[in-house]
Specification:
Radius of gyration: 51 Å
Pfam family, one: FCH
Shape: elongated
Structural class: alpha+beta
Strand order of the largest sheet: 6-5-4-3-7-8
Family: Belongs to the FNBP1 family.
Largest sheet: 6 strands, antiparallel
Helix content: 55-70%
Order of helices and strands: HHHHHHEEHEEEEEE
Subcellular location: Cell membrane; Cytoplasm, Cell cortex; Cytoplasm, Cytoskeleton
CATH superfamily of the largest domain: Arfaptin homology (AH) domain/BAR domain
Oligomer: single chain
Strand content: 5-15%
Distance between the termini: 54 Å
Number of helices: 7
Main location: membrane
CATH class of the largest domain: Mainly Alpha
Number of strands: 8
Organism: Echeneis naucrates (Live sharksucker)
CATH architecture of the largest domain: Up-down Bundle
């Protein structure tokens, strides 16, 4: 029973461990498909690690199930049988003990009766001898009594001898046959119990050894996944995703300050003539609020490379919608044909409104597809011309860029035409830009009610129960700007957090 309880608790521990491992794997596994999950090697490696960890949980569950079915259940059943057998042996022992005690009592009783009858016969003989000397009449009666007592003593003697022989026989059988057999059976039963415990321990070890190769294979797969990470490939893909497609600026022309003249810059610079006399007052900040739906339809506000990717994605989506509409149109046409051939199945004219709606949708989608294909061809030709002019091996140095960049509404860096060039020393200009970039002060704290995976640029991922600093309240669009530390800041859904503003902050209140 003690070992059965031990194995049961061991199985519960394995089952609890498997459940926690499975929950951990599920918690960090992406809730839905994301583009980077299939692009970056480290994301693929992490996904493979989570999958193998889930397989480890499966093996732990299988181990717990084997321990319960093969050991706990069998030992519990055997324990009941063992108790019943043990009870039978002890009952046999008690019956044998009661029999020998009963035989002993019968021997003691016959012995005391024989002793009593002998003493009575002896007293009767003395009385008979004394009466013979005094009177012959009374002597006859006394002799008769003495004879009766002697006969009773003789019978008691016979009973005593019989009881003594029976007891000796019973005692010999008790100590040499019955009790040794009972003890031998108990010993055999104990040996079988120990053998069963031995088998249970061996089965327990074999059950764990059975899952070890699979667990070892999972660990090997995790090692292979870690080795498959290619940092250079991932960084190149990041560059490919976020590259703007702009040509590097040309050389800055010499300006002669000895003569009053208008400064000029090369035609290939990011700035135009309208930037003169105006200072860009907006800071370069990686977590600007995104204005959804802003920008022209042809995405001219985006950098060339980002514009090309946006248009290409739009063309692909529109093509898929057109394919679905065409399939629906073909199905309606086929159904109308069936109705026309078999009017009892339905009215063919009832499909005309839907067919007309599908045709209008197809015309609209095809027109939209043509527009986007034209814009895409313009971007491709522009990028082709730019690449032909670009010098090989040219390196874009941040300190030599005479422009200010800002984030476009979709999170990419775009050209800013409102910045003014300042021909100071590059080192002092670099220091001034970063000296001005002080983080916004915290106006309170918030606690996440649900986990959130920030997939877009400018958002911040968080886990349930995490405490963050609030740096900007919700402006009515459902997003709150928060900060984890000095380096991690972004927007999270207001409905996913509980906000606690400082009493000194404007409009101090709690949002849920």
């Amino acid at each position: 029973e003690r070992y059965t309880k031990f194995v049961k608790e061991r199985a519960d521990i394995e089952l609890s461990y498997a459940k926690q491992i499975r929950n951990l794997s599920k918690k960090y596994h992406p809730k839905r498909s994301r583009e980077e999950e299939s692009r970056y090697t480290w994301c693929l490696a992490f996904a493979e690690t989570l999958r193998q960890l889930n397989e480890v949980a499966v093996q732990k569950e299988e181990l717990a199930e084997n321990l319960n079915t093969q050991i706990v259940c069998e030992l519990a059943r055997y324990t009941q049988e063992f108790k019943a057998e043990r009870k039978t042996h002890f009952q046999d022992g008690r019956r044998a003990q009661q029999h020998i005690e009963s035989s002993w009592k019968q021997l003691e009783s016959s012995k005391r009766r024989f002793e009593r009858d002998c003493k009575e016969a002896e007293r009767a003989q003395h009385v008979s001898d004394r009466i013979d000397l005094e009177s012959k009449t009374d002597g006859e009666k006394a002799r008769h009594t003495a004879q009766q007592k002697q006969q009773a003593a003789e019978e008691s003697r016979k009973d005593y001898v019989t009881s003594l022989n029976q007891f000796n026989q019973d005692q010999h059988q008790h100590y040499h046959t019955l009790i040794p057999v009972i003890y031998q059976r108990i010993q055999d039963m104990e040996e079988r119990r120990l053998d069963r415990i031995c088998d249970a321990m061996r089965l327990s070890a074999e059950a764990e050894r059975k899952v070890l190769p699979v667990v070892s294979g999972c660990l090997d797969a995790m090692m292979d996944a870690a080795e498959s990470i290619q940092p250079r490939m991932d960084t190149r893909q990041v560059v490919e995703v976020y590259k703007s497609g702009f040509d590097p600026p040309g050389d800055i022309e010499f300006e002669d300050y000895s003569a009053t003249m208008r400064r000029s810059i090369s035609e290939s610079s990011y700035l135009d003539n309208r930037a003169e006399g105006r200072r860009h007052g907006r800071k370069l900040w990686p977590f600007l609020r995104k204005n959804k739906g802003s920008g022209p339809a042809d995405c001219r506000h985006l950098p060339p490379e980002q514009r090309r990717k946006k248009l290409q994605s739009r063309v692909n989506n529109i093509s898929q919608e057109i394919q679905r509409e065409r399939e629906q149109r073909d199905a309606l046409l086929k159904m109308r044909e069936v109705y026309e051939q078999s009017p009892q199945m339905g009215d063919a004219s009832s499909l005309e409104p839907r067919l007309e709606e599908v045709k209008k949708s197809l015309n609209r989608l095809e027109e939209e597809l043509r527009r986007n294909q034209i814009w895409l061809s313009e971007v491709d030709s522009s990028l082709s011309d730019s690449s032909s002019r670009r010098q090989s091996g040219q390196i874009l140095t941040l300190l030599n860029l005479p422009v200010c960049l800002s984030l476009s509404p979709d999170g990419s860096y775009t050209e800013d035409h409102s910045a003014e060039l300042h021909f100071k020393s590059r080192s002092s200009e670099f220091d001034d830009d970063f000296d001005d970039e002080e983080p916004l002060p915290s106006i309170g704290t918030c606690k996440s009610l649900y986990p959130f995976q920030g997939q877009n640029e400018g958002t911040l991922s968080m886990v349930e129960g995490e405490v963050l600093s609030v740096v900007e309240e919700d402006k009515g669009d459902g997003w709150t700007r928060v900060r984890r530390n000095l380096e991690e800041e972004g927007y999270v859904p207001t409905s996913y957090i509980k906000v606690f503003l400082d009493s000194s902050a404007k409009g101090a209140m709690t949002y849920i």
